[in-house]
Amino acid sequence: MGEAAKQLDQQPISSGVDEKKTRPFGARDKFGYLFGDLGNDFFFTLVSAFLMVFYTDVFHISAATVGVLFLVARLWDAVADMVWGRFIDTRKPTKNGKFKPWILRMSFPLVFSGVLMFVTIPGMSDGFYLAWAFVTYIVWGTLYSTVNIPYGSMASVITSNPVERTTLSTWRTMGAMIASLLINVLGPLVVFVDNQIDANRMFMTAVVFGVLAMACYIGCYKLSTERIVVPENTGQGGNFGQSMKALLKNKPLLAILLASLTFMVCTMLVGAVNVYLFKDYFSNAAALSMFGLVQAGAVFVAIPAVKPLVAKFGKKETAAAGMAVAALVYYALYFLPGLTSMQFVAITAIGMLGFAFFNLVVWAFVTDVIDYHEYLTGLREDATVYSVYSMARKVGQAVAGGIGGFAIAAVGYNAARQTQTQEALDGIYALGTLVPALIYTFIFIVLVFFYPLNKKRTLQLAADLAEKRGN
Prior knowledge:
This is Sugar transporter. This protein has 16 helices and 2 strands. By secondary structure, it is mainly alpha-helical. The chain folds into 2 domains: 25-229, Growth Hormone, Chain: A (Up-down Bundle), CATH 1.20.1250.20; 238-471, Growth Hormone, Chain: A.
């Protein structure tokens, strides 16, 4: 390892350009970045948790039609991500940075459109509400891209230090988990009356979380500092085709895309299967809430350990080890079919802790991939690279959205039966244990053998970029 890389392991390095006289990376940046995803997820999680039941029970839209809307919107959002990312990369930086201003500019229309999704107008027909749902949901998703793309891209210019970038990824995940806990724990107590969703309460909840989201976006803008200022792309910088060719040669990007998409598909599959696993296999649907609490708890337990582990071993190494632990736990669960629901949750907690480490560093992987793109091409295209990553995830969400239903049907589940056949129950248990074990093993293999940026190469990459920028 070069001397510069050794020094980088101990402290941040200069970006190689005039960073002005900014304060050093610290707690303000961490809280600022946390507020960004807290603001995002106040509405993203609210939509994920309650919008479908709001559409079916209040707007009286069929579940199948809602599924079509979600599929169309996700595919459109993927396009919006790419277009907006490219747009951001062609803008000149301002005195307040390149990405922060767009978060502030677009946050109000984003929040306003989010509140509009939950508006009910007395006397309107079901056809009106169907059109209202399509328009407001797609507009909201498009505006979400205009805030989320600059927010995600900003991490790569807040600091050049790999360990500090891992800290940002960790705090981002913490913001998402806080929003998830608040909405998933308090939301059902507020928006449901007599086991039915209440339109007025849902609207007021959206307004409250909208105000909180705006406060968070302002906090993100005020507290975060963009330190890495690179020269504007010239000449070939505007060549979209050349950028895409370079991205296809970006092995770290392709590997982390494969790992992240596979992880996301697994998460969606497990989320869908667990309902049937606890309801039918364990005959204890109430244990699902404990499962969700333990899953969130595992993330918070892992948070203090992430930074020291990454500093000592590296992001790739820490994430791969977590995947190995998760895979082993789920293999063990598959061969222990006689567990009670609480025993299952207790053992699963260890596996959750394992894959929490991957979840906590995945956004830091993306910042390293952005650096690698600059190293290959000489072009700094943070938003373009991040938007490709985001676009691929949304395409994956669209494709994987129905995978749980298909899987449950494939093992013989029959909703008309009061009690499922033993074959169906065994199939559900395999879907909830063996399939995740195989997927986590696959992700482990991708990280170990196909993702090239281990600790040594990541440190050297940052040092090489600093040297190039300084020339």
